[in-house]
Amino acid sequence: MKTGFVRRPAGSSIDLGCEVPAAEPLPIWLAALVAARCQVNGKGEDHAVRWSRVSDRALYTNEGADAEWIQPLGVHLRGGQTLVVYWLPGETDYTMEVHGQDEMCA
């Protein structure tokens, strides 16, 4: 099934693993989030957050069994949990939500 998302290789300004709909520029808030180069810290293995974009929200799911910290956001995710980040017009900070695996599967 074709989703309209293009996976970009790591290494350039938007390439931190963010999936972007083809031919659509990133909103400024999402470009800033990607530019922050968020890192996953967990069980001795650190790596860049690979954001997915769904309906103007950035999502990252801890697909492992061990807990992870998302820095510099300071968010703790247990195995199977998903971090959802978005920007509400008129706000000065990101809105962040953590959802359990059961909540994201419907």
Key features?
106 residues; mainly beta; 4-stranded antiparallel beta sheet; 2 helices; 37% strand; globular; disordered N terminus
One letter per element, helices H and strands E, the order comes to: EEHEEEEEEEEH
Strand order within the widest beta sheet = 4-3-7-8
Instruction: Give the low-confidence spans.
Output: 1-16
Question: Per DSSP, what share of the residues sits in E-state strands of 2 or more residues?
Answer: 35-45%
Shape: globular
Average pLDDT for all residues: 79
> Helix count?
2
User: Sheet bearing the most strands, described?
Assistant: 4 strands, antiparallel
Number of domains: 1
Structural class: mainly beta
Helix content range: 10-25%
Radius of gyration: 14 Å
How many strands? Answer: 10
Query: How far apart, in Å, are the first and last alpha carbons?
Result: 18 Å
Note down, in words, how this protein is organized.
This protein is mainly β and 106 residues long. The protein has one domain. It contains 2 helices and 10 strands, in the order ββαββββββββα. The chain has helices spanning 28-35, 101-104, and strands at 5-7, 19-21, 39-42, 45-48, 52-54, 57-61, 68-71, 75-77, 82-86, 95-99. The protein has a 4-stranded antiparallel sheet, with no helix packed on it. Mean pLDDT is 79; it is low at 1-16.
